[in-house]
Amino acid sequence: MSLEIVDSCVSCWACIDVCPSDAIFKADTQFKIDAKKCTECEGDYANTQCASICPIEETICDSEGVPINPLGSLTGIPPEKMNEIMLEIQSR
Ligand code: SF4
Ligand code: SF4
């Protein structure tokens, strides 16, 4: 039971200090999660802390590769609505 940080990580350091299990570490230029240490925050927090603080949507995934912080999770704007807005802006 572990989350995973994928290649879109920008190494902002935000997640490392909020992990209650000391499971996050820097590997070369990116951060990773030690699968042996990650508890998915169970017993400590209701939400996974790394995914809650990560500023890059779709960067933290579950064991099946599904993002815990999907597109729209930071802005609250659904992806379809965001596409609509971008198309409208580009047409100006
Ligand atoms: S889910 Fe929780 S325990 Fe696992 S790496 Fe993220 S903050 Fe740490
Ligand atoms: S908070 Fe997100 S972008 Fe920042 S270091 Fe952690 S995984 Fe990478």
Descriptive account of the structure:
By secondary structure, this protein is an alpha+beta fold. The chain has a single domain, classed as Alpha-Beta Plaits. 18% of the residues lie in helices and 13% in strands. The chain is built from two helices and four strands. A two-stranded antiparallel ribbon has the order 1-4. The chain has a two-stranded antiparallel sheet with strand order 2-3. A hairpin with a 2-residue loop joins β2 and β3. It is elongated, with a radius of gyration of 15 Å. 21% of the residues are buried. The model has no long low-confidence stretch (mean pLDDT 95). Bound molecules: iron/sulfur cluster (2 copies).
Q: How are the SSEs placed, and which strands pair?
A:
Layout: E1 4-5, E2 24-27, E3 30-33, H1 49-53, E4 60-61, H2 79-90
Antiparallel strand pairs: 1-4, 2-3
The protein binds iron/sulfur cluster (2 copies).
Radius of gyration: 15 Å
Shape: elongated
- N-C termini distance: 47 Å
How many structural domains does the protein architecture include? 1
Q: Please outline the major beta sheet.
A: 2 strands, antiparallel
Count of β-strands? 4
Can you tell me the CATH topology?
Answer: Alpha-Beta Plaits
Q: Give the strand line-up of the largest sheet.
A: 1-4
Helix content: 10-25%
- DSSP summary: helix tally: 2
The name of the CATH architecture is: 2-Layer Sandwich
CATH class: Alpha Beta
Q: Which ligands occur here?
A: iron/sulfur cluster
Structural class: alpha+beta
Order of helices and strands: EEEHEH
The average pLDDT value, as a whole number, equals: 95
